[in-house]
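Interim report, section 4.2 (structural modelling).
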Amino acid sequence: MREPGPPGVQNYYPPYELGQPITGIGVGVIIRSESPKYRTGDHVYGNLAYQAYSIHKGVPSLRVLPNVETLPWSVYTGMAGMAGQTAYIGWKLYSKAEKVVGDTVFVSTAAGPVGSAVVQLAKSQGLKVVASTGSDEKVEFVKSIGADIAFNYKTQSTAAILEGLGTGIDIYWDNVGGETLEIAINLLNAHGRIISCGSISQYNAGDTEKYGVKNLIYVMTKRLSMTGFLVFEHPDLIDEFYKEFPQKVASGEIKYTEQRYEGLELAGQAILDVQRGHNKAKAVIVVSNE
Amino acid sequence: MREPGPPGVQNYYPPYELGQPITGIGVGVIIRSESPKYRTGDHVYGNLAYQAYSIHKGVPSLRVLPNVETLPWSVYTGMAGMAGQTAYIGWKLYSKAEKVVGDTVFVSTAAGPVGSAVVQLAKSQGLKVVASTGSDEKVEFVKSIGADIAFNYKTQSTAAILEGLGTGIDIYWDNVGGETLEIAINLLNAHGRIISCGSISQYNAGDTEKYGVKNLIYVMTKRLSMTGFLVFEHPDLIDEFYKEFPQKVASGEIKYTEQRYEGLELAGQAILDVQRGHNKAKAVIVVSNE
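Predicted structure of the assembly:
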């Protein structure tokens, strides 16, 4: 789950340390502070240890969440947190959708926290949204949040669905890589954009199992762009996100789902479910309620 | 040579018509004009038929070349024409080199008209230039125009050369696609840029021969961008090109080579040489001298 980065590239997060609690994006409450940045009772967001209490030395880079929207705090770990930020920032920077309303976007793993945010952002801008996900139950969820076409890629052919549109696609939000990426490249229109957000089909593929994408010539002939990004590298947009996005979640304009694991003792199960794709929504481990 | 475009995408040029002269980018002289855009004696640049004289009905989209630089007209078909434009526009729009002087760029087919322009543009901005080409003679030419490292990819390993840099690469100007693209992706640093200008290794590959690029996950993890573009889609930059670039060619700041085929009867040979990669420089067919 915390793979080493590619050669010469530092990983997004520091690796876990043996014998130490693992860490993840979480929301916590300041109990005592010696920093002027944090006051007792402040709710903070950032990389926190999986434990009931922890001590942060120096001035940690935790963000104080005013939560004027009075959202459940758990939402700040998902739709109003990194997942929402990823969708917001990737879409804002690379969809170029402002200029071409009327486009069609294809979103893979559309029922996940990032995918479902992208579906809703795209829909709110008037795009036609085609969404793939891995179960019929998730198909229903993705339709309920506005996807025009949603399908179970395990029982339906992605290529047939995209070809069946008759119009091609203009944007592919890629969470999976591999063959699905190749199919999307085949069906992208001129000036199509690929937003490379994830590559879950390739994470655990051995060297001989990795999928070879054979149609990259279309990047040139169709004048496509393909871009990867990292949410933390855009601090200005993260500030903007917090101004705009949580209130849309609070108002119901942006919908979300959560799968809550109540108690730290379920953390292992939660991680296993996510790694195996058995979770049904954004997995949240509730260490303690206030 | 004029393949059908990918599904749903119009090709760059109209296909050749059987029984009609083939066409290509050329420079001609206006002999008689009924359009106020063109005067007798004007030299014009654009898509011209392979013939000594031709009649253009309506108002053709030919550009009048003032040639205040008094370059040989043939240069306007190459370094001061589409090849130079392609390098100038692709580099300007997608290298992001203004912001990160000190970067390393890798250019494939660096002895060709586009590649050699890119080598010189990159060098003039202070980048380190690594260049691959297909013969020892071309290696010498590429070094003579400023490449820091030039190698014959047929006798040396591209992967070994790029790994040997020790620094990775920041920009890959891709003229070839396939395995070379995969190698470049492996060696690109975080935030690396791929400018997809050509894919010559894949043009004539059958479906079973096409190379599958297996490491596109790095687009995400290394936050790469890969972009294709078409020179004709940026008219403003083409105007800018004509203001800036031909004078650099005239002054010798940008160097070029040409392989001239004197006489229309050599057109077939010229095309064959280019398609087979037997040309040694920009191929120019001289239909007639003034």
